Amino acid sequence: MSGTFRDLKCWQKGVDLAISVYSATRDFPRDEVFGLSSQLRRAAVSIASNIAEGRGRLSNKDSLRFFGNARGSLFEVETQIDIAEKLHYLAATDAERLRSNISETGKMLNGLIRSMNCTIEADTREQ
Predict the structure, then answer these.
(1) Smaller CB count within 10 Å for the chain: N or C?
(2) Where residue 108 sits, what CATH number does that domain have?
């Protein structure tokens, strides 16, 4: 892989998703500041952060582990969006918009993971 983590489209989408989550949680009830709102924001930030950290690792297997962590955080955000919608903290339209962003980010991240898996398999065959 060449370039920096900022060149990765899935990292860019992850940052956009985190910003959208921050915006969407701004109007959550005051008593959720240290609850669901905080957890949702941390998980959303974790997506792009893990992609960046994975990109900075020295081995492909190490990178793949962090990309997998980012994928796990993506599912965590999706689950928390569902909970927030059921609690009526998010309007259905806002939740759907966030799910669409999650889906796009996930597709890009899955592509990065597939590519990394292929690289690891090729490296293994060469040894």
Answers:
(1) C
(2) 1.20.1440.60
